[in-house]
Amino acid sequence: DAPIALITGPCQLESLDHARMMADRISTACAPTGTRFIFKASYDKANRSSIGTRRGLGIEAGLEILGRIREEFDCPVLTDVHLPDHCARAAEVCDVLQIPAFLSRQTDLLLAAGETGAAVNVKKGQFLAPWDMANVAAKIESTGNARILLCERGTSFGYNTLVSDFRALPIMARTGWPVVFDATHSVQQPGGIGATSGGQREFAPVLATAACAIGVAALFIETHQDPDRAPSDGPNMIPVDRMEPLIARLRAFDDLAKGRTGAQT
Amino acid sequence: DAPIALITGPCQLESLDHARMMADRISTACAPTGTRFIFKASYDKANRSSIGTRRGLGIEAGLEILGRIREEFDCPVLTDVHLPDHCARAAEVCDVLQIPAFLSRQTDLLLAAGETGAAVNVKKGQFLAPWDMANVAAKIESTGNARILLCERGTSFGYNTLVSDFRALPIMARTGWPVVFDATHSVQQPGGIGATSGGQREFAPVLATAACAIGVAALFIETHQDPDRAPSDGPNMIPVDRMEPLIARLRAFDDLAKGRTGAQT
Amino acid sequence: DAPIALITGPCQLESLDHARMMADRISTACAPTGTRFIFKASYDKANRSSIGTRRGLGIEAGLEILGRIREEFDCPVLTDVHLPDHCARAAEVCDVLQIPAFLSRQTDLLLAAGETGAAVNVKKGQFLAPWDMANVAAKIESTGNARILLCERGTSFGYNTLVSDFRALPIMARTGWPVVFDATHSVQQPGGIGATSGGQREFAPVLATAACAIGVAALFIETHQDPDRAPSDGPNMIPVDRMEPLIARLRAFDDLAKGRTGAQT
Amino acid sequence: DAPIALITGPCQLESLDHARMMADRISTACAPTGTRFIFKASYDKANRSSIGTRRGLGIEAGLEILGRIREEFDCPVLTDVHLPDHCARAAEVCDVLQIPAFLSRQTDLLLAAGETGAAVNVKKGQFLAPWDMANVAAKIESTGNARILLCERGTSFGYNTLVSDFRALPIMARTGWPVVFDATHSVQQPGGIGATSGGQREFAPVLATAACAIGVAALFIETHQDPDRAPSDGPNMIPVDRMEPLIARLRAFDDLAKGRTGAQT
Fold it and tell me: What ipTM did this prediction achieve?
């Protein structure tokens, strides 16, 4: 088993300079442990809680930036897609297309993403059971695409709250596809503070540690230099200056889980 | 308060003949109580549980049929839309555009539907709290559209199960928009039988009765002449030959709730 | 089907004078519709959220008061029991023993209550499925007791929140035992305001109406002359001066559900 | 931080010989890692799903056996108590009294257990939020008892299912009391197979690993030499012959979490 990869970056693209700064700081945070990272950022927040919030730079400006990051930092890049006809365009630049959780049952989007040949990371819908993801993966498989990732990001638990059911990790792994754990969205409180979503940033490292101990292929962790001023998902993002020790700690649990240390496994 | 309207029809369009037969039987079932109905059918089931199930006739063939039903039966028609660029085309034919529950936070779809000027019926996402629907409605309101309906259709409750929280009806009514209760999807068991969704048809009339007693503007009830052989949602549809007595019973509760009888209200 | 009975009274006994005043006002509220009521009050709140809250008068003083109410108002009385060895004593005075929801799986308590020969009203645990209540009832049936009531009072839904699943009413009715709906505890927010439970009093009449429309044998509604100053459960109790019109409205729905009016059922 | 302790044993006492055999095998399984264990077994299953299942040996015979195990194996012993007047008697033999989850709000039981001076392990009710346990602990604290353990064992999630919310571990730790994770009851499916509870034994080690990675004071794991024939809780118990490698693996994660290895923490 390979060491965990990290899907990380700011929730939304703000500017080329911002993306560069973030990629640079992430790169620095990953270096001591040699952790591979996939730079993640959204060009469009297509399902914000309310209309009066920032959506992002749009597909053309966004892909332009992601392409620059990819080239300058020699790292794979990921973005989420919301409409079938965005997939081909996004795949020209991105190594991984991500299907948002709310859209995880939209057949046309899954097929369009699959048909690009890019890797596809599907977030498990908050309304789905872990075993339902086999049907989701099968939609992508039907395109001949064999680069699928299944990502746990929390399940609806009462109102405005998610819960992480860690049984989901081994259950989704039964599909044979690599499993990702999204630590920062799992602690989101959707719609929890009126017109935007709240979050419990302090629990993201707790849940990420648990996921590494159980064993995952990758972690998804959004980060920002100043989460409280980020245009979206601030309440659950990890400050980028805390990423290096967090990654080191997660790697230690990943090493132990995957038998790469002298531990009594 | 006007008597309840009924949004009803088969889950998916099968053919013009089938739609005609269903509209005819629905019309007959509604006649004794003078119940107004909106004919509902989908031209595309865009989020089926799995890839190997029937999706429908497609937008052009579907709208052609809906247009004929509208004309022949002189009734409003409703269909659900899944992509922003379908909205304008669908609104040429349909009186009401419906936003599927999974898509109830997709800003572009809500705006595109709102901009058509057609009435918009938004199903509350299984992952949303009732109070979150105020933000959803506000997205449509931002287009100047003032013909919005908010529809309760069940909330995620553990895996593969929905629960109907009837507090949602008065909470959503606080927005000022008419509230609809979807009795047949509320008893769905999403993904509950492997590659398709199960359902508990026997409880749809129970929940519909409760909704009428509390007070709603409309009920959504899918129906079919032979639900067990319907191409989708069979387990929760009501056989069309049971619709007339069901409507009569629901109307009695609606009359009582709205003070149209001699009851001690 | 007999008209609904009402299980009603203050959450906890405060004094003989208070109980008399409440019984008198309840009696007056029930008179116009001829609604039978069972006077309910607790002599001990044995599972308060926190230690620093009032528990009640204790079993001897409490039963003394309940006995007086029973005699003076010629009405059946109900109290909840928490320990097996309280059952026989409570049954000397009370017509109905009630098993609290948290204790609905405690075999010894169910058997002890059953053995008294008094009627037994079991609240469904917040952690139980409706079909689990058949096993609960079977424990009481094993004592030869055939006067069992099963009471829905909400199911855990995320943290500090209950949801009323109205499918539970027909499911529990399959046992053959009369079903009760507890409208005031169903809107409780357990532990919701720190050291005590919150509640959403405004929704109790909504849910009670739904239950009557579906059809129940009895409603459980706690009431108080000044809920905001009641020693327990204030946030969800109905002010006693609103009971008469509420009962009249509920009776109208009950009459319709049970076919006692000229409605088209 | 001390290494994790293990609360372990068969769900219910079967006989002195059986208890001895189990204690011997547990002792052997713990020896290689020097893991301290507390022998757990119940003398009475007071809240079985249904009446027709075995309850156990009763308090006198049960305590007699636990006393012998304590002496012969020089280990602390734990049993659960269900009635206030059992606490003093049980504390004559047992080092730890355990409050069952359903009874975690019963004030008299918590006080009676606290007053014995024995350590008290409270299982968090399936219907409680993690922060509600501060009020539960305060009831015991009010007796002057300062040997309290708070135990996570799953939260109601839909019907017949529990979910483990790992945020509960750090939240309950804020009380200052040691936190225990019950790995085998957390995978229970209460009432899930008709008249008894089902379970998902295969996930108990997964969740136990996650808990160790997050950091707990102790794990609770029920075990049996032949779980499929155990008189209760078979579907979720771990076969005793798999305990030694499981303990070794859990200890490795515990060591890493608590900084006892050379890992990069």
Answer: 0.95
